[in-house]
Specification:
- By secondary structure, the chain is an alpha+beta fold.
- The N and C termini lie far apart (79 Å).
- The strands form 2 sheets. Strands 4-3-7-6-5 form a 5-stranded antiparallel beta sheet. Strands 1-2 form a two-stranded antiparallel sheet.
- The protein is built from 13 helices and 7 strands.
- The longest helix is centred in the middle third of the chain and has 28 residues.
- Helices cover 62% and strands 13% of the residues.
Length: 347
Amino acid sequence: MLGIYLNLVLIALAVLSLAAGISFCINASSPRYIRHYTLFFGIASALICGGYALMAFTPDTDKAWIPRLVGLYGVDVFLLMEFTFLMTDMKIPTSKKYFPSGAFGVYLILDMMIHGDKNTLAFIRDFGFTYYVPVNSSSHLFHYSYVTVIGITLFVCAIFWYRKASIRRDKLFIIKIVSANFLILFSAIPDIMGSRIDSCYRSVGYCTAFAIVFFMWWQAVSIQSEFTPTIKNISKDIFNTLDIPVFIFNLDQSVTVFNLQAKKLLLDCDSQSVNECSLSDIFVMTDVEIMHLLARSRRGEDSFITVTSRLTQKKLNLKCTVKLDFTNEPYCVVGTISQLKEEYKKE
């Protein structure tokens, strides 16, 4: 039963890896190549965990090699993608990336043909699931030669990558990625040792290790993306550091967001809660005036009116800019406040 539960966990990890990779690629503010690599790593992790889990649940031992081949492909691709990412992030010229990437690509194909052959392993159905034991030591050796060569190459490249990084944040990112990859090395020991360690669960260890490496990668690049200078990342800081009072309200006049200047100008912080404000709470406006303003906003029309602050009793200019959703329908209004010329002169 333990083997069944462990392989169910692998299926869950496969689904989570794929979902995390797709979500990051769509929503993150990182550079395009990092978003794409995260997607590819997520797909590779899903292939590894899903492939070996499906192998375990395949009742026909003559067909168990097919999902196992899918898992092996995920392993080889994951390692190759790590290498190509290092080359890309280190800004190695494209002409210099062709040979090593092509060499590892050829090695990957040969590994799929030799170590992925259905006669390389003997599949055994026991305890309610299917597992394998190596029967061809030469193909086993070939596979781990590929893993060793690309592993050493990755480690050497990572050292140069670390030395080249000038920002402490980038150095910490590199340390996380390199440290995570040692999990793969340690998790592969049962498979390398062969029959001397229980064969039933040998695939579970390194599948889980690849998934952990992916999620550590996902967490590291998610943190990195927060410091990418994009509109999405800096818009909140810009909003709060503007000298102009700005607030946002919806089409039932509930005010949802204030920047710091708007809070100082319009709110009595001791008695008013930001989450409970409406236009009538912060401005001296009649119900008819509010109704006309909201009616124009619902039609998608901007407004420019003069209002009086309840807090200071000063007259202010209020510019209302309507924001539209993807169906071209209004969903909120951005209010920008400026002082009247005569009020400004008094100050």
